[in-house]
Amino acid sequence: MELAPEQCRAARGLLNWTQEHLAERAGVSRSTVRDFECHRHVLHRGTETLLIRTFEDAGVMLLPPGEYGPGVRIR
């Protein structure tokens, strides 16, 4: 699955997490999260995997793009 910047922001919103909190939980820098969410750069595959796993471990389901685009929901 490919994580979209909008999904990242939405997932953080569902969890009420800051960029800093996500970065700490995933073991990445805050600037990585910030720059990704602002479309400044794409993520390396390993970093993307860390973010996806962090969200999934926290109970967020990342929905693949469909008719309305990618989405998120809480389990």
UniProtKB/TrEMBL annotation:
Q: What molecular function terms (GO) are annotated for this protein?
A: DNA binding
The segment(s) forming the HTH cro/C1-type domain are 9-37
A Pfam family this chain is assigned to: HTH_3
Which parts form a coiled-coil structure per UniProt? none
Q: What is this protein called?
A: Transcriptional regulator, XRE family
